[in-house]
Write a structure and sequence with these properties.
Layout (H helix, E strand, L loop, with lengths): L1 E5 L9 E7 L6 E2 L4 E6 L4 E5 L4 E6 L6 E3 L3 E6 L6 H9 L30 H6 L3 H10 L17 H14 L43 H16 L2 E9 L1 H18 L5 H15 L6 E3 L2 E3 L6 E3 L1 E3 L2 E3 L2 E2 L7 H17 L12 E5 L18 E5 L3 E7 L2 E15 L5 H16 L2 H5 L2
Helix pairs in contact: 3-4, 7-8, 7-9
Length: 438
């Protein structure tokens, strides 16, 4: 007897998703609650579990298909016997987890060298669980996926795993400029090889293109950012901040902090607390427009922009104004880890009232971030670099960071935006203010 596998509820207001990848193929045994497919929604990736233990007997949709909540996408044979047709279909079906919708050049990765006997996974299993983004990374960085240990769910490879392996491979290769071993002189009768023929002038050089369908997450990001530009009156104001005091505080207390709380003391905790303090003086930055009304809040739910393999996601640190430094740092670290694994839930990314985006981790010097509707403001952090500044009439080097506050001018006046940014600057340059509420 076969049991239907249905698309589960995907969260509030989400009615459909895209079947991103089959994690199992027809004919394979599955355990109860074992993920058999990965769905991509507008906000997160969701794994679809098998409702029972048995054999995956039939896949009813292909990778890339749009499926509605409640739709039947597969069947599990609970009798423990898969039909011969289903088993054969796994070999010839166009529903192919390793190759569906990919460029023919990508399929060459299926013939990667087999791992050594002591490897954790077989070549076939490793390839079958690679997402399209991971396959592209494997080809781009020229690494052997069978020799990389995955850090994703159930040991699956992530794009970060591939990049890390490529960097390790590069670090282990001979350095550029190193003296190559001296070649032996050729025997007298040996002839020098003829030089390779040069392309004739005007001859065409092979150039390739690859078309990849936009993920639902990327489509949603594009839609919401354009919606923000079309709806809000966007404006950005800037300031810079001397990071000396925060850097000194971290250096002084980082070991004690980590020993007591089990988490590293980062910069983000200081900025979240500083924004919470500033929002009390400038509540419009934490407000939003709904119809012809302004909604003011006595709480601060901070959306923290986190880079994930499929795009930027913004999980929410709720009641951040009431949290300690340790609680903030632990929450953000957990979000970052699960963003890479693709295990964030829809509920964790809804309801933010203010956003902080740290482009400095990628080396950004300055930017104009776009607000995340219906929010009215976003703070952009950037890289820290020593710059000459004047202190007490003397030119000195200080670790400086540019801050950018983009805001909806329909709600937030320029005076309020500048005041908010100055309050953040004051709290970062004198962290004692965070303790005595100044």
């Amino acid at each position: 007897m076969a049991t239907d596998v249905q698309v589960p509820a995907l969260g509030e207001s989400i009615t459909e998703g895209t079947l991103a990848q089959w994690l199992k193929k027809p004919g394979e045994a599955v355990a109860a609650d074992e993920p058999i497919a990965s769905l991509e929604t507008d906000k997160v990736s969701v794994e679809v579990p098998s409702p029972i233990a048995g054999l995956f007997s039939e896949a009813l949709v292909a990778e890339g298909d749009t499926v509605a909540v409640g739709a039947v996408i597969a069947r599990i044979d609970e009798s423990g016997e898969a039909s011969t047709a289903a088993a054969k279909g796994a070999e010839s079906s166009n529903i192919n987890p390793a190759g569906a919708g990919e460029n023919p050049q990508l399929r060459g990765s299926e013939h990667a060298p087999e791992p050594a006997a002591d490897d954790d996974t077989s070549s076939g299993d490793q390839i079958m669980t690679m997402s399209p983004a991971v396959r592209r990374a494997v080809l781009e960085y020229h690494v052997d996926p069978t020799k990389i240990k995955g850090t994703g769910k159930d040991g699956r490879l992530t794009k970060d795993d591939v990049i890390a392996a490529a960097e390790a491979q590069k670090a282990g290769s001979p350095k550029a400029g190193a003296q190559a071993p001296q070649a032996k002189a050729p025997a007298p009768e040996a002839k020098a090889p003829a030089p390779a023929p040069r392309p004739a002038p005007g001859s065409a050089v092979e150039r390739n293109e690859e078309r990849v369908k936009m993920s639902r997450l990327r489509q949603t990001i594009a839609k919401r950012l354009k919606e923000a530009q079309n709806t809000a009156a966007l404006l950005t104001t800037f300031n810079d901040v001397d990071m000396s005091a925060v850097i000194d505080a971290r250096a002084r207390y980082k070991d004690l902090f980590e020993k007591k709380h089990g988490i590293r003391l980062g910069f983000m905790g200081f900025f979240v607390k500083a924004c919470a303090l500033a929002a009390r003086d400038v509540p419009s930055v934490n407000a939003s427009i709904e119809g012809d009304e302004i909604v003011y809040r006595d709480y601060l739910d901070v959306s923290i922009a986190v880079s994930a393999p499929k795009g930027l996601v913004v999980p929410v640190v709720r009641d951040a104004d009431k949290m300690s430094f340790a609680e903030i740092e632990k929450t953000i670290a957990d979000f970052g880890k699960r963003a890479k694994e693709g295990t964030l839930t829809v509920e964790e990314m809804q309801g933010g009232t203010f956003t902080i985006s740290n482009g400095g981790v990628f080396g950004s010097l300055l930017s104009t971030p776009i607000i995340n509707p219906p929010q009215s403001a976003v703070l952009g952090m950037h890289r820290i670099e020593e710059r000459p500044v004047v202190k007490d009439g003397q030119i000195v080097a200080r670790p400086m960071m540019y801050l950018a506050l983009s805001y909806d001018h329909r709600l937030v006046d320029g005076r309020e935006a500048v005041t908010f940014l100055v309050r953040v600057k004051e709290a970062i340059e004198d962290p004692t203010r965070l303790l005595i509420d100044l």
